[in-house]
Description:
CATH topology of the largest domain: D-Maltodextrin-Binding Protein, domain 2
Low-confidence stretches: 1-7, 9-32
Strand order of the largest sheet: 3-2-4-1-5
CATH class of the largest domain: Alpha Beta
CATH architecture of the largest domain: 3-Layer(aba) Sandwich
Order of helices and strands: EHEHEHEHEEHEHEHE
Strand content: 15-25%
Number of domains: 2
Radius of gyration: 19 Å
Distance between the termini: 31 Å
Number of strands: 9
Shape: elongated
Amino acid sequence: xxxxxxxxxxxxxxxxxxxxxxxxxxxxxxxxxxxxxxxxxxxxxxxxxxxxxxxxxxxxxxxxxxxxxxxxxxxxxxxxxxxxxxxxxxxxxxxxxxxxxxxxxxxxxxxxxxxxxxxxxxxxxxxxxxxxxxxxxxxxxxxxxxxxxxxxxxxxxxxxxxxxxxxxxxxxxxxxxxxxxxxxxxxxxxxxxxxxxxxxxxxxxxxxxxx
Length: 211
């Protein structure tokens, strides 16, 4: 498989080393000292799920490519990251970590980035959505307690990253499955901030992932 040098690169984040050969293929023939650092663009803030997964991928990629890599955090629901990605030269030195949230942003027309602008490299992670509560602050100690509380009409505040994202959709589908109204949803800029606010008690439930 070859990757056109005229196209930028994207890592599909929806497990870590499977596509490193493609990255190496795109960079072959250049001495390490002559290579600029590869930018790895993520929409998450430092400590967010996609940020953590990007940095995990970079640990082995640096060794395999013998080339420096730097994370560029562009927070803003995916559009900011994709628009920045579009502004970079198509020289093989830019990687975008692409999630379901990016696909949603594209479908909503919030970015000019199109699928044909991307050259997929690898599937980065299996990224399930997990509803979490604070171990210390929450009255729910088991999943059954949580489900019963929602069905009994407990007024809960859910937190997620941005609006119109997979986190937001997850909360909606969860409420729909239980047959209850959509609960209060509070958007945050990234998973790191959300996790902090969940522990602090700002929200009762956080829509997070394993990272």
